[in-house]
Amino acid sequence: MDNTQGKKPLPSLEFIWSHLNLEGTVQVGMLKCPCHEDKNASLSIFESRDRSRLLWKCHAGCGGGDSVDLYAMVKGCSRKAALRILTLTPKEIVDDFTAHIVRKSKEALRDDTRKPTFQFSLIGIDERIAQLAELRKIPQEGVALAYRRGLLGFGSHEGYAAWVVHDSSGLNIQARRLSGHLWWGKSKSHTMRHSKASLPVGLRECYLAKVVHITEGAPDLIAAHAVIAGMATPEDHSAIGLLGASMHPSKAVFGPLEGKDVVIWAHSDSAGKKAADAWTKSLFGLARSVVVLAAEDVLPGHKDLNDLVASQTGMRVILSKLKEVGHA
Ligand SMILES: [Zn+2]
Question: 80 CA to middle of ligand 1, Å?
């Protein structure tokens, strides 16, 4: 126990006992415990080992300790709160409490208003679009469409050239390096601080579309735009990106997809298929229809939509598959 804490020296057990108007006088021996119906004085008072003060212990099991512990037990507060009350002046208690409230409300305010930021650049966009198309093997018109629709941006993070997926809500920004290298040799993607990572990217932008393509991860979101660019009526289609298979938006989050036809482009791995199942469930009763297309079912041996779009025959197979389900 910490007896040096606080600004005033700790009060004695004798002082606290009388301060609390408890029965009897504190001295070494037995007293009635103030914390239980005590018929036979079962609270012992004894000297501390260094004989500097008196301590107590209830043999019926209420507890024991020094004057602060007694105060805390009788008042039903924590030892920390008891220390504050017993060692601070009334003004200090009020100041302490006020500071606590200010701190808490600042924290609450910050959580609600802070948004992720990214250093966007508008210079050399055509070159960067070409560079990303080359890096991900996605047809250039698809990358350009994603950029025009406001779901793709370019700039830098920590001094590295980067491409990001984001949308007009500004709530979720995920960056990848334009060189294709990992961030700090560790991860492919970096979610910018204060992002709402579980929020789908592109929800606001899909309100006019009849068919919405749900994709997993930033590369597939861009790849979906290559598919859309290849459609007879691209304006009827839009794509949203869930930036990870573990993101499971609620029905409420998926609200903007009400009455729309949805195509889910599932990754071929088990996490991807599980995610597609969960998203389908959330969309039940909300979307007009939901079709799940797993990459390996579209073309065997392919792992995701980016992979399909990058393959030589992929685009043709995708478009015929979409025709088959009535969406192209
Ligand atoms: Zn007791």
Answer: 21
